């Protein structure tokens, strides 16, 4: 799960990470009030959406205008006016895709005197199994771009979980970032606080881009992105409450309500599979036969008829779906139950695209009988390759 910048900053601040002062605003009036409370000569009005690149992004209503992060020098009245121009408008950034995201909240923040913009993040490196710090002198840019163009400007530091983040590691990062004097102590404090937040909050990512050195030499987080391990959210009710459903894909949200593991992709063959590994293999084999999966969907080990129906509806709500492949291995689950679910769901949603079903495992014969007796145009497949070949062919023929 991801959260907004202002939420990430409030969490990080509690752990002692240096962030500028700011207030969230849902209306132009609240933005004005926030600027008045901040009181300084410069306020920055920042669109809160779950996507980066806001500064360089543009509003659909004003493609030649200013971006999603605006520096305002004219006091609270001007902040109010800018907020009015941003709220309710759709911001398109490199990360939102062409559809963009509607801005429903703003963060009004103290203006910061930036001397240098740096990059800093913590994430779990799955190759080493360790929380790893990634730092670069190239702040403000997307780290993927830096990695492609100047890989030498990125430093990494893996953290041994037995001892945690060590002060010498913080100094190493600070030196690599070209920090000096009292900034080194500030960076050590910053990194230690960030690591504490990462581990105690079960984060999966903390990205500070840019981390800035200010004119007077302090080191603060000017932007903050945090992601969390969904499986640990039950331990953090306060973070779970920060979920902003407006920022999530509606079909993925609906899937999570039915405890289905669904990820939308951009192909045309809908997949319904039990088990994540089998689901991955199914997507691969569809590709091998020249098709392209419309989604990843793991219905889980204990899928009921209701869940199978919900899964069908979610798959079919995607207008790109031109065929469906159901691939179930009945281990704990019985194939006859699955077949009943598939038949009921296909009837209920009045299926309009080819459906290929491959069943294997417990009660497979009975399962196949149910499919055959249903009178529905279900294509039965004997193995994974056969199923993939049949669904790709059926989709091509239907075109
Ligand atoms: P995004 O990464 O989505 O574009 P950022 O929060 O990183 O959003 O802001 C983009 C840029 O705007 C920053 O790199 C920085 O130059 C400037 N900026 C952001 N917040 C402030 C602030 N409080 N004061 C001054 N400049 C800011
Ligand atoms: Mg940023």
Automatic annotation (TrEMBL):
PROSITE patterns hit by this protein: ATP_GRASP (PS50975), SUCCINYL_COA_LIG_3 (PS01217)
Endoplasmic reticulum as UniProt keyword: no
Organism, scientific name: Tistlia consotensis USBA 355
The protein's name: Succinate--CoA ligase [ADP-forming] subunit beta
EC top class named in words: ligase
Protein family: Belongs to the succinate/malate CoA ligase beta subunit family.
Catalytic function, reaction form: GTP + succinate + CoA = succinyl-CoA + GDP + phosphate; (S)-malate + ATP + CoA = (S)-malyl-CoA + ADP + phosphate; succinate + ATP + CoA = succinyl-CoA + ADP + phosphate
Phylogenetic placement of the source organism: Bacteria, Pseudomonadati, Pseudomonadota, Alphaproteobacteria, Rhodospirillales
Pathway recorded for this protein: Carbohydrate metabolism; tricarboxylic acid cycle; succinate from succinyl-CoA (ligase route): step 1/1; One-carbon metabolism; formaldehyde assimilation via serine pathway
Function: Succinyl-CoA synthetase functions in the citric acid cycle (TCA), coupling the hydrolysis of succinyl-CoA to the synthesis of either ATP or GTP and thus represents the only step of substrate-level phosphorylation in the TCA. The beta subunit provides nucleotide specificity of the enzyme and binds the substrate succinate, while the binding sites for coenzyme A and phosphate are found in the alpha subunit.
Cofactors named for this entry: Mg(2+)
Cofactor note: Binds 1 Mg(2+) ion per subunit.
GO BP annotation list: succinyl-CoA metabolic process; tricarboxylic acid cycle
Gene this chain is encoded by: sucC
């Amino acid at each position: 799960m991801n959260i907004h910048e202002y939420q990430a900053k409030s969490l990080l601040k509690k752990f002692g990470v240096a962030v500028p002062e700011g207030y969230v605003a849902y209306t132009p009036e609240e933005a004005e009030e926030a600027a008045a409370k901040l009181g300084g000569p410069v306020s920055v009005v920042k669109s809160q959406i779950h996507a980066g690149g806001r500064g360089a992004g543009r509003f659909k209503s004003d493609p030649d205008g200013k971006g999603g992060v605006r520096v305002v020098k004219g006091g609270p009245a001007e902040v109010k006016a800018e907020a009015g121009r941003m709220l309710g408008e759709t911001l398109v950034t490199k990360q939102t895709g062409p559809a963009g995201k509607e801005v429903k909240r703003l963060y009004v923040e103290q203006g910061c005197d930036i001397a240098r913009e740096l990059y800093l993040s913590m994430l779990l490196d799955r190759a080493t199994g360790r929380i790893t710090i990634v730092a670069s002198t190239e702040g403000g840019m997307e780290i993927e771009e830096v990695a492609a163009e100047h890989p030498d400007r990125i430093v990494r530091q893996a953290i041994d979980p037995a001892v945690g983040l060590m002060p010498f590691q913080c100094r190493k990062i600070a030196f690599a970032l070209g920090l000096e004097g009292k900034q080194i102590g500030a960076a050590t404090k910053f990194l230690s606080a960030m690591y504490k937040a990462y581990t105690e909050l079960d984060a999966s990512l903390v990205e500070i881009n840019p981390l800035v050195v200010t004119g007077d030499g302090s080191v603060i987080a000017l932007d903050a992105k945090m992601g969390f391990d969904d499986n640990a959210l039950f331990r953090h009710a306060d973070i779970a409450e920060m979920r902003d459903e407006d920022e999530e894909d509606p079909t993925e949200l609906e899937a999570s309500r039915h405890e289905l593991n669904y990820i939308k992709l951009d192909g045309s063959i809908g997949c319904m599979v039990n088990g994540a590994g089998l689901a991955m293999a199914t997507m691969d084999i569809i590709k091998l036969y020249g098709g392209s999966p419309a989604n990843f969907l793991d219905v889980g080990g204990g899928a009921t008829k209701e869940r199978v129906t919900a899964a069908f509806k979610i798959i079919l709500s995607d207008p790109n779906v031109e065929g469906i492949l159901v691939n179930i291995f009945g281990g704990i689950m019985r194939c006859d139950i699955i077949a009943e679910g598939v038949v009921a769901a296909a009837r209920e949603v009045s299926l309009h695209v080819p459906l290929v079903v491959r069943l294997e495992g417990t009660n497979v014969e009975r399962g196949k009988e149910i499919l055959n007796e249903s009178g529905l145009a279900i294509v039965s497949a004997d193995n994974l390759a056969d199923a993939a070949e049949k669904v790709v062919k059926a989709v091509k023929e239907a075109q």
